[in-house]
Amino acid sequence: MASLASHEYYRDDMTRMPALRSIAQTLCLDGRVRKVTAAEAYALAKAQHDVMVTDLPIYPPAAARLGLPEGATVLNNCHGRIVGRTAKARRFYTRMEPVERRKVEADLREAVYEMRRHPLIKAEAVLGLDPDLMIKATIVATEDDAVNVFNWLANFTPYEELAEVYAKSPRLPIPDILVVGFNHWKTTDPYYHNEGGSQLALVDEDANVIFNLGMRYFGERKKGTLTLAWTSGMRLRMAACHGGIKEIDFSGCAAPEARRLGKRSIAFFGLSGTGKSSHTNSHDNGGTLPEGFSKVVLHDDAFQIDCQAKVCRVWEPTLFDKTDSRPLGHPDWRYMISTMNLGLTEHEGKVLPLGQDVRNPNGRALIDRDLLGSYVNRCAFPDVMVWLMKDTCLPPVVRFADKGLAVAMGASLMTRRNLAENVSEEELKKLVFEPFANPFRVYELWKDVEAFLQVFAAGAVGYAFNSVGFWKTSDRDLRKIPLATSLTLQTALLLEQLTWRDWDRLPGAQLPTRESVDALIPGYTDAYDPAGVENRDRYAETLKDRFHQRRVFLQNSDLHNRPELLMTLVNALMARA
Asked: Helix or strand or coil: residue 438?
């Protein structure tokens, strides 16, 4: 048995069980809460007022895995104002003072009291597909939120499917995960977030419990559950990764310079819209991989790096992807399990989901991992780690010869918000810092810094890809960086085709030499060499200011509680004018 039930985890002293876990567990154990399978949740979801039944067949292997009836079709769940994650709604129980805790506990008890007026259902899943990292989870919801229960079971793995494997998996000193969702919650209390509707994501990462109140969007259930899984992995000294990773095997290539490399793995870290999935899932990197290669993908969004065993482990058997680049007739539609916030259209007499964000931004789908081709539940330790940045001062690729700089750039990863998040138009325009591209981290940043220092100390090499555009004459007038360019650079890193020269403006960083990179991408150096930009003085000032912002961000973080770590990172971020 992997993770531990409450009575096992707290058996030595049940008074150690936090109030939030007790509230959640009491609800879970109420005999009136009906346990459902994926098939039962699917049947209930079809009756929901906000769910539409389409004529698009659910990917048959996924339907069989979930026990759905033959011919089951994709359900489309549509929301109102809010169609993305709301970070401002999060409240962290472990960070609260006693008075605040008592208030929140009382409000939560009242919310659960109201929740009990509704017919309730629950379901169980296993998080993790590698037998060495499996956690049991339970979700409780109202019957009229069955679509989120179905999607949650489809996103992870119904417990029954892995029960035998789970029973034989190693015991972990981690409590089972409990998730409670109650969409009908409303409040006028200014303590809670109330833009577009009352919302609360109440997290107790120590107790492995999360409450989603007033939150219809499935991404809150998924990422809330993953937040607790990632944090559990961190407790086990595995680095938590909001990223994608794949492993390329060159041993079957005809070219000896490729064949000698054997297997190489590469990981990408970035928010939605930075190219994380495009880089991870690309079949052949735009035709740049050599003939004879083979590829396996672990996942494009969530995994854990085990530095001790030098492996990576996956949490989910599905992908939760945007559909903005998938028009009608796109081959990916055959792998669909469920859709969220998509329009519908009639095509050849059938009602089908319509992607491309026609109805609203951030249309999403749950997609079977078969889309990736060959995939695995465990893969090799990453040889290459890529931070996907939206910093216009960075050329398309930068190598970090200094491991401290590699971690510092990840800890101060500069990006922009996106339409997957429920934020204002003004917030979408701002440059922001999202350490290691993980907006779901609920523990101290210094713990991630220590974890990634271990990753680089164990042999990974760090890079940054600019995914927004490079300075031409200003921060607004940019040279485009086509995806094809970035995919070519990815292949070049995997095949070790580039030679490097020190970047004079950033000690510890390197740029590709003209001879090596222009042979692969003609004209690259003339287009993207920082020494050749127009308005050079203004560029130098902006670059220096960006790195000053990075240092200030880290100095204002909890890293000040680990001064030696902080100084290592800050001293690595000294850009020169």
From this structure: coil
